[in-house]
Each structure stands twice: as structure tokens, then as C-alpha cells.
Amino acid sequence: MTTPTDQADIDLISLPGRELDRDELVELVRAVAARPELWEEHVRYDDEHRHYVRLHRDAHAEVWLLCWTPSNDTGWHDHDVSAGAVAVVRGAVVEHNLAIGSDCLRTVVPAGHSYSFGPDHIHRMTGEAEGSVTIHAYSPPLWRMGQYAISSSSVLRRTSVSYADELRPTEEPFPNDQARLRDALI
Ligand SMILES: [Fe+2]
């Protein structure tokens, strides 16, 4: 895993010097995806710790390279106030969307496709194919993110985490929500 301080600090396609909307974020990830000279040297794979490198960050936007194996899983999360876009460059990843009262949505996104989302988006991404590569852009840049977990009694909980933390499924055992609520009642 490469930490955010190891960013490649590339001179990206000219950015407008303000926050980008979703369409602009899609344009940005597609433009970076089309220029492997900007990210190719950073591609690595790790089943245990998802490999990612920040390619660019300024006051308004940031761009990341992510590398995926089928073992890699972000867990459920949001991006706080940031909008984002993803371009799949190689292989395929899965976009999961949380649903209440029905099965979660599972969408395989193959190489050559891209999508965007607003700050209201909650998702989980997993690798689908060996050797998958994605380019992500966020605006404003990530600072805090929400990481979600579902307790054994199906209660959804959110934890605020730093953008620098590796997102992964929460593995801690959750307390019994019913007992917790009962103890909290006065
Ligand atoms: Fe995400």
C-alpha cells in the first residue's frame, strides 16, 4: 500500500481551479485513464491491503489510482461532502449499493466504463477480475469519509474515518443493539 504522502504529484490535464461537478469528474477520470503514462508505473496488486496511490490533489479536486484483486473490498462507505467519479481501465470491479428492505444492488463495471456519484452516495466496491485498475476523482478533495457496518441485529452504524485510512469491511464484533438500547433507556 502506498500512503497519500507518496503521491505521484503529476501535472494533470488542466483543471478549472474550482470544484468540479459530476460530469467534469467523469471527464477527468476518463482523461487520466486514457494516459497510462500518468499512472502505469504505480500499478501493484495486494490481496490483503488494496493498493492505491494519489496522483493529484489540490484545493478543489483529487485523483487516485486504485488496483484491485477479487479479494479487495472497501466495505460500505460514503464520501462525506465530496462528489466522485470512477473510470475502470482494466479488468472489472463491482459497484454495490445498499438497499433497505430488499437485496443490495450489485453492478459489474467492466473496463472502458465510468460512472459518477454525488455526496449522497453510499456504496461498496469490490474487485471482480484479477489485475483490475480504476481511476477515481473527488471534488472537493476527500477529508473525512463515513464507514458503515451492519450489526448482528441488522442495525446500520456509521463511523467517521480519515481519507487516509484504508477502507475495508468492519470486522469488529458489534454489541447487542437491543441490550444496548435497553441499557440506555432511562
Ligand atoms: Fe467510494
Question: Would you kindly provide a written description of the structure presented here, covering whatever features stand out?
Answer:
11% of the residues lie in helices and 37% in strands. It has helices spanning 22-33, 177-184; strands at residues 51-57, 62-68, 77-78, 83-90, 92-97, 105-110, 114-117, 122-127, 132-139, 144-150, 156-162. It is mainly beta and 186 residues long. Fe (ii) ion is lined by residues 77, 79, 123.
Alpha-carbon distance between the two ends: 47 Å
- Enumerate the strands of the largest sheet in spatial order, edge to edge or round the barrel: 6-5-8-3-10-11
Number of helices: 2
Please outline the major beta sheet: 6 strands, antiparallel
Strand composition percent: 35-45%
Shape: globular
The residue-averaged pLDDT reads 88
Please state the structural category.
mainly beta
The ligands bound in this entry are: fe (ii) ion
* DSSP E strands, number: 11
Contiguous low-pLDDT stretches (5 residues minimum) are 1-10
Radius of gyration: 17 Å
Portion of residues within helices: 10-25%
The H/E string reads: HEEEEEEEEEEEH
